[in-house]
């Protein structure tokens, strides 16, 4: 089974706060009648990873990767002299310049196997904890588990270097209880794109395989998309033209395609109204089993959209 790039970066940023102050000495007619001072208690909060943390790890459906790290309230022989409340924030997102591997589930557990929190795809969540004041130092171990389930979207949709996910872990500590951060709402994709192919056939003269493709763009937003365009990558198969309802304006560099609306001066074809779709199709060379990637949908009235709900379906008997 093919494996696909997945980069995990773990960053522990420890933030501590120390309350300190001094009572100034005061004088009366008798020198040094009394004096006093206040010294802040030791406040120690550190994090430690293990050698198992990796970057550039490859993962495939049915596989699971795990990493372990800990936080503690002591360093060497010095133990924190206060209660410590900490918050670990896990942020799962796409690598810069790539699309996230949406089926991945990131779960945080303790060493007893208790699930503390998790997210599928992309998102942010917190794990809260506490070290109560004690003579001896304390520590907590955490297990980060990344799993790609076998069920769901076909792994072929996430093949290659255009997909990668990243995990960042930040930590903050305080002497007063902390609250979990409300997760930012994830905006639903404004557009859906479906890429379909037929069963390939062999050209009797050249011996090369050919197939027919179809692209459907659906506007999920409440605003129209005027003078639509779509661009994507298809590294191996080659789309040779568009028969109707679109103009192929670029197929360079190799594997990059951009299509514009047909320019019929017709709102039903040149624009995509809310809740409506436009489709175009054409001939292609190859086996037709490769997914399009890095999809961008544009319009004269909108900025380019990269948050696209993509579905790829291969080997159909016909395209309706």
Automatic annotation (TrEMBL):
The keyword Signal applies. Keywords: Signal. GO terms for molecular function: hydrolase activity, hydrolyzing O-glycosyl compounds; polysaccharide binding. GO terms for biological process: carbohydrate metabolic process. SMART domains: CBD_II (SM00637). Residues 1-19 form the signal peptide. It comes from the Bacteria. Pfam families: CBM_2. Gene3D superfamilies: 2.60.40.290. Residues 184-305 form the CBM2 domain. This is Putative cellulose binding protein. The lineage of its organism: Bacteria, Bacillati, Bacillota, Clostridia, Eubacteriales.
